[in-house]
């Protein structure tokens, strides 16, 4: 599946590959150390940039209180 931005798709695929391997080979065997954290941070940064440039981040942030979300940009 493509990411929200074609620029982010390679990062998404790399993160998903890392996550699936980590989950099946490490997490399920008790190793909870997040081996894919740096990839996730890169992917999230790409997504955040896309959301900002399209104006979607403002829309999402405005909707959060209405759906009961406690997530804020400060606690990401």
From TrEMBL:
<comment type="similarity">
    <text>Belongs to the TRIAP1/MDM35 family.</text>
</comment>
<dbReference type="InterPro" id="IPR007918">
    <property type="entry name" value="MDM35_apoptosis"/>
</dbReference>
<dbReference type="GO" id="GO:0005634">
    <property type="term" value="C:nucleus"/>
</dbReference>
<dbReference type="GO" id="GO:0045332">
    <property type="term" value="P:phospholipid translocation"/>
</dbReference>
<dbReference type="GO" id="GO:1990050">
    <property type="term" value="F:phosphatidic acid transfer activity"/>
</dbReference>
<keyword id="KW-1015">Disulfide bond</keyword>
<protein>
    <recommendedName>
        <fullName>Mitochondrial distribution and morphology protein 35</fullName>
    </recommendedName>
</protein>
<dbReference type="GO" id="GO:0005829">
    <property type="term" value="C:cytosol"/>
</dbReference>
<dbReference type="Pfam" id="PF05254">
    <property type="entry name" value="UPF0203"/>
</dbReference>
<dbReference type="GO" id="GO:0005758">
    <property type="term" value="C:mitochondrial intermembrane space"/>
</dbReference>
